[in-house]
Structure formats: structure tokens, C-alpha cells
């Protein structure tokens, strides 16, 4: 079971490797599919702050 923790300073996925890869692919798809991982993580960081 995948768990996702978003704090002001970090994004942490806890689960099996395939679950984490799948979750990252899903997040990228939601953002248009052609987004770099660093940009995706910075967006998650800004959402956690608000």
C-alpha cells in the first residue's frame, strides 16, 4: 500500500518500488505527461505550503 507524505520541505513516497513508479507516472500524466520530475516535485512542494 502506497503512502504519500508531503511536507513543506519534502515529498516522500512509502511503498513498493512498482507502486512508487506507478504513482509518479500518474502524477506526470495529470500534469500533461511531458513534465520533468524536478518541476513536478516543486509543484508538490508549493501545494504543501498552501
UniProtKB/TrEMBL annotation:
Protein name (database record): Z-ring formation inhibitor MciZ
Organism: Cohnella abietis
One Pfam family it belongs to: MciZ
